[in-house]
Fold each of these.
Amino acid sequence: MIFSKIRRVLGDIYLVFVLIFLYAPIATLVILSFNTSKSRNRWGGFTFDWYGELFKSATIMSAFRNTLVIAFLSALIATLIGTVAAIGINNMRKIPKTVVMAVNNIPMLNADIVTGISLMLGFIAFGISLGFKTILISHITFNIPYVLLSVMPKLKQTERVTYEAALDLGATPLTAFFRVVFPDIFPGVISGFLLAFTMSLDDFIITHFTKGAGINTISTLVYSEVRRGIKPSLYALSTIIFGTVLILLIVSNIAQNKINKRR
Amino acid sequence: MNKNFRKVLTFPYILWMIGFTIIPLSLIFIYGLTDKSGSFTLSNVLAIFAKDHFKALLLSIALSVISTVICLVMAFPLALTLKGKKLNKGSLIVFIFILPMWMNFLLRTLAWLSLLEKNGIINTILNFLHLPSLNIINTPAAIVLGMVYNYLPFMVLPIYNVLEKIDDNTINAARDLGANTMQTITKVIIPLSIPGIVSGITMVFVPALTTFVISNILGGSKVLLIGNVIEQEFTKGSNWNLGSGLSLVMMIFILISMAFIAKYDKDGEGMSV
């Protein structure tokens, strides 16, 4: 009895230790965004100035816009292609299915640097000039496998019979799909989209190789400023993004709990 | 007709994968196995044995193996503790580990620079407590720390996923049959969580082996990993043939880990997020 209590306390202490490890750098960035001093390790007093400057900086705002637009579009297109493909693949025979799923794993398991280089070589070989378009294509490419992997398990769970029953009751295949199958796989589609969005937002390596000159996302902007010294406005921007997501997740968690309780 | 229609559904996907995954990858093979004039050569691949390249490769392997082991040692007890908490449907845990990803990856790594620097935050705290200071910035140790920090979630999530699926009755049965805690863990829980452990290992090992960003930021460009060598061939040196040749060597390690996953994680249990 005492042993299991000790074990639980030790477990909790360990959990707190890991959480500090994971969140210490994030706390550092949040604190730095309010630091008057530009230096990374001297506290010069509290200020909101970097937040004001953030909205005045054309470079940061355009990088931010690019990041969001690419994340949203690539997640959306990947979700469309991936979901539609998942339905087709789910009905394939065993051997072609194994082949397709193996190819699907390539961008996920391959190193980002290899994926980035290969895409860059591909764009150049086909004469596509590097820019916004090539970043978007690359992000769609590494996002599709994540969508497929979130949708496939949901499709496996849906019963073929219910779809066929809908057909027997006079629904067209399209109506049957949207009224019967789609609601079942919807959670998988949404989680695929969100995962793709997060992956795209956090990507640096693949963007680095496929972006060309003259366009930046937040990641590539930070990388180009690492040596010169980062503008604290970038800390302010990531603090805003982080805070927004944190609030959204907490709100959705509370809402989810309330729904669960009512049930 | 219905069946044909379903086939049509996969066309955009298959075309996309051929155009943007298979063809680009083949180009790496073509570049890696030819010289600048376009004739076949193995010299780009064999260049891995050149002194500097080989040193970078060995260091990359050493650091990524160390990081993978640390991640595994940290993640397993963590996943066990989290399983013990019986969180509903694991939403909270995914939340905790995915959330840091919304803070930019480069900024997160850069924050470690502020924490670890000579006059950084950790040393200020250590000095205040009259403890010896920690001087690991610009050394391989800082790079290992950066790798563990960035890739730990990739180890925790798959292990947690498989642990969640272990029935409590299985564990209780082991207890009833007289196994103590240690025996339950080594004889029941670990064997059942092999698929998660294996996908965790590859999810950490591959990015750690090939990184150039973490070594660039936390190693202060004093430590060269194989990722840095390749990146420089493409951005600064612009010898794409050599860069592709070295990438091919790196892909051998990636293929080994893919085969490893295929052997132990047949249903892709650990991969599902």
Amino acid sequence: MGDDSGERSDLEALGAKIARARGDEPGAKQQASTPPGAGMGDGLRVATEFVVSVIVGSGLGYTIGSFLGAPLVGLLIGMPFGFAAGLRTAYRGMVKANAAHNEEDVPDGND
Amino acid sequence: MGMISQLLPSWIRPQAADPMEQFEIVEIFPIPTGEGAINLSYTNASLWMTIVVLTALLFFTLATKRLQLIPGGVQSMGEVAYEFIAKMVRDTMGDEGRQFFPFVFTLFVFVFLCNLLGLLPTIPGVPLELHVFTPTSHIIVTFALALMSVGLVVAYGVFKHGLGFLKLFAPAGVPIWLLPLITPIEIISFLSRPVSLAVRLFANMLAGHVVLKVFAGFVGGLLTAGGVLSAFFIFPLIGVVGVFLLEFLVAFLQAFVFAILTCIYLQDALHPSHH
């Protein structure tokens, strides 16, 4: 993908032009950064991810356990790992959501 | 139910009866395959996915047909859709993400139209094969889509970083002695991605449609109950209208969540070491 730097600068120039045109226009409205109900979506997302992590962890533990001849031991080990994975996913998701929320005012925040 | 079947016209009866009937797969053009083989028949699910693809094709053909500086109705709808996804891709993945735009856009449009067209009311009296059907209310459909997303993440990650992609399971800044604990957690967290993508979309669509049908069933039930009870039909009716409107929001929101999570996962494929 290294050969499209010319194309990219063209794109940037066009973007700047559009931004300028928008800025000049008195009725230009700020672009909505989050769709309606995104908060609800975030909440439900974390909930499903957490539940699914516990189930996947348990299932994985059970499967590995069955190969080793002790499915229940595997299940008992897998479940807390799934729980931890769920917590980690939820935590990471929330950190990202907060960061995005705080950065909302800054227009060109790239990481 | 005996009471209802006597009072209602015949074409309402089968619909009022069973809230799960709308999810039944019906073969339209059966393709005979052997015993125990995969059934390749063209079903109502296939029909509605075809309708979705044709609708998308028609819409974007119209939207891009006569491009004008000051866009008309269809063109500006197309532009809003394009800009919405383009901004999402840019915000999550930066400039490098541009190569994934076609994939994310296709995914978003397909899921959104599946959800949206599934909300069309069924014309009363048409055969079961032609009932309105929501492909995304079947977990096998959403799981296939989720596997595509995660498959692309793995394929691109391995192609771009080789074994370095495995850094995804050993986040930067974690002390060595913690790795035996963190790595299985990260692996489980990675494996649960396609499952949670699939389950979320499927569960939302399934639950929404069941609730609609159940509330609609209450309306019919109360109307045929007779006497004072019949007057109460207005409450489930208000409910069903409210839920129906909410379903439009859910149809959009779930497509949005599917697309943005795909972007977030693809970001991991671009930079496996810091996430």
